[in-house]
Amino acid sequence: MSVSRGSFIAALTATGAGSAIGRLAGAAVPLRRIDFHHHFMPNQYILDEQTRFGEPHGNSAEAAWSAEGAIDACDRAGVDFAFGSISTPGVWYGDIALGRKLARQWNEAAAQTVHEHPTRFGFFAPIPLPDIEGSLNEIEYAYSALHADGVNLLSNYSGKWLGDPAFAPVMEELERRKALVYVHPTFAPCCTKSMVPGLIAPMLEFPYDTTRTIVSLVTSGTTTRFPNIRFVFAHGGGALMGLYGRVEDLGSAPQFRDKFPAGMAAELRKLYYDTASLNAQTTLPALLSAVPSTQVLLGSDYPLAGAPPTNVMIARAVAEFEAYKPSPQLKALVERDNAKRLVPRIANL
Asked: pLDDT tens across 301-324, in order?
């Protein structure tokens, strides 16, 4: 994080305390901030995963997740609403029946959390790709029975990135629904272990895998053929800004000219990106120079955003964005208005 300890504490006080005092006093406090990158960790999902595979994600903080703890962390940051999503490894372990069971289990637990706290949470439903039939069934169930706000995908499934032709039936259904699709990185088959000694694989490999799947979606023509799918990518698009020049040049490659006639830059400007893990002095300015401010959303990555204590992780993410010193207009767009436009049901909360 590039935010100093002093500025972080000041931001924490200014954002969280005023909101909390207003609620305690019974005052009407308008919806101020929305966290678009917030991980639900339902207890049974964590326990089942831990039983089968050992410590989940290598991060014991996840097992302690609760709606109450998440609300406390949101309140400390002046965040009034958060959209829950799943993190790696998701629900797919190469077993169709297990994938369908874990997706349903996670989605029903998330829907219950939203039912219990309707003014604080929404959720994006994971589906058991690469199982096409199971995924289509889960999309229908998530929307019709559970009233999910969108669908949650990982960056690749068994080494197939999201532009792979095998996923076309799912993309067609998401297009039909004009779906909001939240994409989170995961391990690529090439890179399940860190290539740099002393680092965990997600530190470097996750940003690259997010970039791989964005390039896959554009160069396959998926973003052109299915313009009504609204893709949101974690961590500002991963390594995309660092590779922007190379990626933009793909638009002139003969094999891709018919896939995205408007050019790579135009396709990237249509996508959405959250601010989780973005540095206020470097990557955030780069992102805002490449895409319109209407495409950027506040994200915290709670409770996986770094070292404990988890109850200040969201406040750190807010402070990091505000260290950029956004204009009032940009602040409103990123922290609230862009999310409200994507999910109109929360506009009157």
From this structure: 999 887 778 889 999 999 999 999
Helix (H, G, I), strand (E, B) or coil at 117: coil
| Residue 234 half-sphere exposure toward CB, CA atoms < 13 A | 32
216: CATH: 3.20.20.140
Flag whether the pTM goes above 0.85.
Answer: yes
Q: Rounded CA gap, 172 and 174, in Å?
A: 5
Tokens 């049901």 correspond to what residue?
A: 345
Nearest to 318 by CA among 24, 28, 59, 9: 9
Residues with Cβ within 8 Å of 322's Cβ and at least 6 positions away in sequence, in order, are: 11, 331
**Alpha carbon 241 to chain centroid distance?**
17
Confidence at 49, pLDDT banded by 50, 70, 90: low
Question: For the chain, how many residues are written?
Answer: 349
**Nearest-5° Cα angle at 5, 4 to 9:** 115
Contact (Cβ atoms closer than 8 angstroms) between residue 347 and residue 340: yes
**Residue listed under structure tokens 């259904």:** 173
Backbone φ and ψ for 81, nearest 5 degrees, come out as: -150, 145
**In which domain, by residue range, is 225 found?**
5-25+32-346
Q: Residue 181 is encoded by which pair of tokens?
A: 């699709």
Q: Are 210 and 183 in contact (CB under 8 A)?
A: yes
- How many domains would you assign to the chain? 1
Residue 36 host element (H or E) = strand 34-39
* 20 neighbors 32 (Cβ within 8 angstroms): no
What pLDDT digit, counting tens, does each position of 157-169 carry? 999 999 999 999 9
Q: Which residues are paired to 122 by β-bridges?
A: 83
